[in-house]
Amino acid sequence: MSEIKEQGIYDARTLGKPKMLVLGLQHMFAMFGATILVPIITGLDVSTTLMMAGLGTLLFHVFTKFQVPAFLGSSFAFLGGYATIAPRLADGAANSELLPYACLGVACAGIIYLILAAIIKAVGIKKVMKFFPPVVTGPIIIAIGLGLAPSAINNCSTNWIVALVALALVIVFNIFGKGMIKIIPILLGILGTYLVCLIVGNICGVASYAVDFTTVKEAAWIGFPIKWGQTVFGGVHDSGIAVSAIIAIMPIALATIMEHIGDMSAIGATCGRNFIANPGLHRSLAGDGVATMLASLFGGPANTTYGENTGVLALSKVYDPRVVRLAAYFAILFSFSPKFAALINSMPAALVGGISFVLYGMISAVGVRNMVENKVDFSKPRNTITAAVILVCALGLGSGVSFAIGKFNITLSALAVAALAGIILNAVFPEKDYTFAEDNK
């Protein structure tokens, strides 16, 4: 194949279809661990989650005119909402009776996205983005990566040898690899480490490295990913519970919208394009909102643009949205195979940790790059204080801030609090030095 294009970016014409398929698989593997973790925590169905992640991603690409290389996976921001409305039963089983009501609340939260998208379309992006300069979005992007870091370390700690093997393989393939090897280091790192675990654990008998295939053997080859009784249409019957769920969960959208803007800034900074201006923040918000509504109505978790896949973009330097759409097609295809879901879920936690170790770091590095390229002047106290408050709030508040409105408990994630603090401080402080450019650079 021909070598790297100008600015080190490959596209479909450079790569060809077979290599594009491999890259699509890489994106699917990158999102898989975190995406299925949400249904594991909440009790939602894994296969439904996979299908809705794929469909939501395709919908998002339609709304954004097929320009933004984003993958939409399961959002962690709504976990508190699910726990409030449909907590697991005493024996740890999923609360299948109340989960559809929580899903209804999440679906209604998607309406907030559409309302904000309409406002942005009406008043213009420049009036909105003056509240989101690089001194705000940069630290938010950094916090997204650093906030994910503890989960990577926790996974690594289950077996640091396996994690370091995965990390080393990714680094070697990306730094010293040539041609195709250089741009699929995540996939090769996963396959290589998985092979090491099979050889050392399953063949040589070292238990701490063994891969457990019990659930793989028990899982069916083919199954329909949507269970009607778990959907909003088949599982919601009590209007009182429905209203309570909607009121309790809808405000969480205010937090996820902040995260969406940070993610879009990260993707744009990674690709060297201003996606907030073109195709427009109103389009990406609408796409995210509609994808969340679709997923929730049919029994899946809320969708959100995925930092893991942004990390893959930064590492591989393949920014062609068609690669991400291939990952969506694969997710939909494999949602019909419970056995495949079980196979991917059998990956050792340490392997996932080693891969995440570098991906999450890449996200934070993109945030630094965002501020450097926009020449944020940290000799000005306003910028230093704004960035400092954002980072301390995002990394120091842990589970976020909870408060009650009437009889309803509202929880804002640490990242949402940080974003709000940064927006307010930037708006209040004098000497603003940023003007949003509506070009596509």
What features would you describe in this structure?
This protein has 441 residues and is mainly alpha-helical. It is built from 21 helices and 4 strands. The strands form 2 sheets. It has a two-stranded antiparallel ribbon with strand order 1-2. A hairpin with a 2-residue loop joins strand 3 and strand 4. The chain is globular, with a radius of gyration of 21 Å. It starts with 11 loop residues before the first helix and ends in a 13-residue tail after the last helix.
Oligomer: single chain
Strand order of the largest sheet: 1-2
The number of distinct β-strands equals: 4
- Quick one: overall form? globular
Q: Overall mean pLDDT score?
A: 82
- Uncertain residue segments: 1-8
Distance between the termini: 28 Å
Rg calc: 21 Å
- Helix segment count? 21
The largest β sheet comes out as: 2 strands, antiparallel
Determine the fraction of residues in helical runs and give it as a percent range: 55-70%
What is the succession of H and E elements? HHHEHHHHHHHHHHHHEHHHHHEEH
Sheet-strand content, in percent, reads under 5%
Helix/strand class:
mainly alpha
